[in-house]
Design brief:
Chain lengths: ~625, ~325
């Protein structure tokens, strides 16, 4: 059983809250959810926003596709936005009071979409009203469920003793969610669970909304399914990607996060900040007595500062990170070169978004693979590592700090907007698998001058101010082992070689399973290649494309050339990426000498979906070499 | 049994193995000597001091000091220092840099350090030129002046560093003169002792590129606040005095024809960032800051992750 759903309406008027209610409520009935939020780069203003997702009895729930089985719409604008995302057999819940409206009634609709809709209606000989589009859908096999929202809410209000328009307006979320729950065959108690999660535990609020739900569920007599509440044996978590990263950092021992506000990275840092101080395990040795431990979350004045502050904290000995996105990342370039030169293990969690420049702050892209690989000036060692789903975001957030500390290089952890706004009800990660590989600092019995960069050790000893009893100099200038400026060609060459040799060490020591994964038949003739958040879409698509395999690359720098070669040599390859240049294909050619057979690219600000992968594969089979994906859900 | 005789450190104890590499007669020698003297007077443990600098002639100073140091990138000394200090507030963190580094490329960080009132010291070695790139106009060079390396007179007006620092919220504001080592030492000692963000501007003439604001130029203009006015008291003793003391400081800071030296303003009644953080985020912050907190026991995180996620578990 898989049901693809959508909840859409004007941004800033409760769509997000309603989605949380719906997801949590369905989750509470024992189902898994994989959902994603799409919204404009505004707070309110009435632009259209929506949440699209999949309900499943098992995990992983499939990634969203390009159409849905059911759409819950807040207004006629939402109906018009999603006319082409419904298909024969889909269900549409809409407000009949909006039937007379047209694209021109909604001044926050994109002009381009309004024109497309009007053209579509004209070609089919009908006036472009919401009612006519609903009729068109009905004639094409969509089950349409029209409810007069305001009239119904007013009547419900009368029944439960609420007449104030302000109060009634607050019931819209619960009302719409209840219509959707009813369509799924779930009762008002699951609406109430969602209300409790999204609106708080205030008894009066829950009771009032429950009563709204009792009445609202009766308004829908059609059923897309009759979901039975399920008992789930495993613990499940409801979170999004930003949160998974923050929880992963806390698990991985990060105690210092700096940030300058930027979408979609800030929620990562702010989740970390919200959770301070963290509860301590009862068996955590001497710390257990404290019950909670603190951390620093620091809002910097700009990204130049954010990366420098995090690097400073790492120099002092904290596991430290900063979270940012494209424009902010650009500002960190110089400091990353310095971290490479000074040999400081600092982590940047880079939440990629659609660029270039301000671009689309709230939309998806994977444009930073090559920028991250080559950021900064000069040659220096670093790690660029990408996560593809929420489970990975969590565990990788631990790994990257282990590596940063062990190899003393800057690490860029690539995640993206798609992951940041992916909401899942999924199995709780197994926390016993979290391992912190801490490097013990050197502590001298008596204060002494120490070499910060001894030539005989590939990675410098961990000297910490105030901890090591050492006096040492760290330098952004090329330096001798003592950290003093040095331009002697012999010493300079030795220093350079030693730093860069860490790349080889990293490549040798990090196990293959952390670098990439191969899914599907080993003898597959065609290998789809991808990275980051295209992973869930490709894996969901593989269930249909049984003859294809998937090479999923996580370690992007140092590029795992021998492994990539091993899997791709002699195969037909189809690289699927959320960018224009097919950056992984370029990296594979540059580092591993792989000539891609074809690339499928999507650069319209929307993630690659399961359907996109299936479609790209078909086009690939038909001989297309450069496949442009233009789907819009 | 051997007895350990604990002696106070001397200025020489802070001298690094290699000598300074500045031009003969450079004002920075005086600042360096004052730093040695101040550290000795405060008997600072060199393994607990972190000197942080950016880029420029003055930013080379940490190379010549036997303490831990971080010679970072241009303009960012303050944020690196803030990261170090906030990760381990028990360290004594001192930033040194020139007017280009701290007031031009790094100006924004200076402003924001001030409003945070982080307990550390910034020493501005002010010579109004970019020495290391051969004499371009610095942000403290007044308009209309043509120093020798610039092709035309300076079309940009100067920043008054103390005015900026006071506005930004620094709670200790002082000015010294590098050839008066004894006086500069005193100011640095006071700045480090101060609880909160301290800013010390030190006129430190560039003998090679600033042929206008020379030793003679400064010595014609400078005077000491407490000598000119024996009742001069820059300290805020009571919160009611804040406005008065700020006005008095401003009066002196904006003087242009004569250049007062001394402490202009000192207010320890403003909570430091560290104190605020402890009050708002974590009562154990200074006792167990990020840099020295154990994070694992036998490789397992100390944090109770299930408890942390409790409100998200179904």
């Amino acid at each position: 059983m898989k049901i693809r759903f959508l909840i859409g309406g004007p941004q800033g008027r409760g769509v997000e809250t309603a989605s949380f209610m719906f997801i949590y409520g369905v989750g509470a009935a024992g189902y898994y959810i994989y959902a994603r939020r799409e919204f404009w780069s505004n707070i309110a203003g009435g632009r259209h926003s929506y949440v699209v997702g999949t309900i499943s009895e098992s995990w992983p729930a499939p990634a969203p596709g390009n159409t849905v089985d059911m759409a819950l719409t807040f207004d006629g604008h939402a109906v018009l936005e999603h006319v082409f995302h419904l298909r024969r057999g889909s269900y549409l819940v809409y407000n009949t009071e909006e039937e007379a409206k047209t694209p021109d009634s909604y001044n926050m609709m994109s002009k381009a979409l309004a024109e497309r809709l009007k053209k579509f209606a004209k070609e089919r000989g009908f006036e472009p009203t919401v009612g006519n589009f609903v009729k068109y859908l009905r004639e094409n096999g969509v089950e349409t469920i029209g409810v007069p929202y305001n009239k119904s809410i007013t009547e419900i209000g009368r029944k439960i003793g609420v007449t104030s328009p302000v109060m009634l307006a607050r019931f819209v979320n619960t009302f719409v969610v209840a219509l959707g729950m009813s369509l799924l065959g779930l009762g008002e108690e699951y609406v109430a669970r969602g209300v409790e999660f999204a609106l708080g535990k205030k008894a009066e609020v829950i009771e009032q909304n429950r009563r709204v739900a009792v009445e609202a569920v009766r308004l829908v007599d059609k059923r897309i399914a009759t979901l039975q509440p399920r008992r789930v044996e495993v613990k499940r978590v409801f979170w999004n990607g930003n949160e998974a990263a923050a929880y992963g950092k806390i698990a991985g021992g990060v105690r210092f996060v700096s940030y300058y506000p930027i979408t979609p990275a800030t929620d990562d840092a702010m989740t970390f900040e919200r959770l301070i101080p963290f509860p301590v395990r009862k068996d955590a040795g001497e710390l257990a007595a404290l019950e909670r431990v603190g951390a620093v979350a620091f809002q910097a004045e700009d990204e130049l500062s954010a990366i420098a502050v995090a690097t400073g904290a790492a120099i002092a000995g904290a596991r430290a990170a900063t979270a940012t996105s494209g424009p902010g990342f650009s500002l960190m370039a110089e400091a990353l070169s310095m971290a490479g030169m000074m040999e400081v293990g600092v982590v940047v969690t880079l939440w990629m978004r659609a660029g270039p420049s301000t671009g689309q702050a709230t939309r998806q892209a994977q444009e930073e693979l090559l920028p991250a690989t080559f950021i900064g000036h000069g040659e220096y060692p670093k790690i660029v590592y990408a996560s593809g789903d929420l489970e990975e975001v969590f565990y990788d957030s631990v790994k990257v700090f282990n590596w940063a500390e062990k190899y003393r290089v800057p690490v860029i952890h690539l995640v993206d907007k798609n992951l940041s706004n992916t909401f899942t009800v999924m199995p709780l990660p197994d926390f016993s698998k979290v391992r912190i590989d801490a490097v013990k600092p050197v502590v001298f019995p008596q204060t002494k001058e120490a070499e910060a960069y001894p030539l005989d050790s590939l990675v410098p000893p961990r000297l910490l101010p105030g901890v090591s009893n050492a006096v040492f100099h760290l330098n952004s200038l090329e330096h001798d082992p003592e950290g003093d400026p040095e331009e002697d060609p012999v010493v300079v060459a030795r220093m350079f070689e030693r730093r860069m040799a860490k790349m080889k060490l990293i490549d040798e020591e990090i196990p293959p399973e952390d670098k990439l994964a191969y899914f599907g038949p080993p003898d597959a003739e065609v290998v789809i290649v991808g990275w980051g958040s295209v992973k869930p879409a490709v894996l969901s698509a593989l269930e249909e494309l049984r003859d294809a395999a998937f090479l999923y690359v996580k370690m992007l720098y140092p590029f795992p050339a021998p492994l990539v070669k091993k899997h791709l040599e002699g195969k037909k390859t189809l690289f699927i990426e959320n960018n224009y240049l097919a950056q992984l294909a370029l990296a594979s050619r540059m580092f591993a000498g792989i000539e891609p057979t074809a690339v499928a690219v999507k650069f319209n600000g929307r993630p690659v979906t399961t359907d996109d992968v299936v479609d790209a594969y078909k086009r690939f089979k038909a001989g297309e070499k450069i496949i442009k994906i233009e789907t819009d859900l | 049994m051997a007895t350990v005789v604990q002696t106070r450190r001397t200025p020489a104890d802070y001298r690094w193995v290699r000598p300074p590499e500045w031009c003969p007669g450079c004002g920075h020698f005086g600042v360096l000597q004052a730093v040695y003297n101040a550290f000795a007077e405060l008997d600072l443990d060199p393994s607990r001091v972190v000197l942080v600098s950016g880029i420029g002639c003055s930013s080379r100073l940490p190379h010549f000091v036997k303490t831990t140091s971080v010679h970072a990138i241009h303009g960012r000394a303050i944020p690196y220092a803030m990261g170090i200090k906030l990760a381990n507030p028990s360290l004594e963190v001192v930033v040194v840099g020139g007017d280009g580094d701290l007031m031009a490329i790094g100006g924004n960080h200076l402003l924001h350090m001030g409003r945070r009132n982080i307990d550390m010291t910034v020493i501005l070695m002010d010579n109004s030129v970019y020495g290391l790139t051969r004499g371009q106009a610095g942000p403290t060079l007044p308009a209309g002046i043509k120093v020798k390396a610039i092709p035309k007179a300076n079309p940009q007006s100067e920043i008054n560093p103390l005015l900026l620092a006071l506005t930004a919220g620094f709670t200790f504001i002082a000015r010294g003169y590098s050839y008066d080592i004894k006086y500069t030492t005193k100011l640095i000692v006071e700045a480090i002792r101060h609880k909160g963000s301290a800013f010390v501007q030190i006129y430190s003439p560039c003998v090679t590129y600033n042929n206008v604001m020379t030793r003679e130029w400064y010595e014609k203009r400078i005077y000491k606040l407490e000598e000119a006015d024996p009742t001069w008291d820059p300290v805020v003793h009571d919160e009611k005095e804040v406005d008065t003391k700020i006005r008095k400081a401003l009066d002196k800071i904006v003087e242009r024809d004569r250049l007062p030296l001394g402490i202009f303003y000192k207010n320890e009644l403003v909570p430091t960032f560290e104190e605020r953080y402890e009050a708002i985020y974590d009562p154990h912050y200074r006792k167990l800051p990020p840099a020295i907190q154990p994070i694992e026991v036998d490789g397992r995180p100390v944090v109770d992750l299930e408890k942390l996620l409790a409100d998200r578990i179904l």
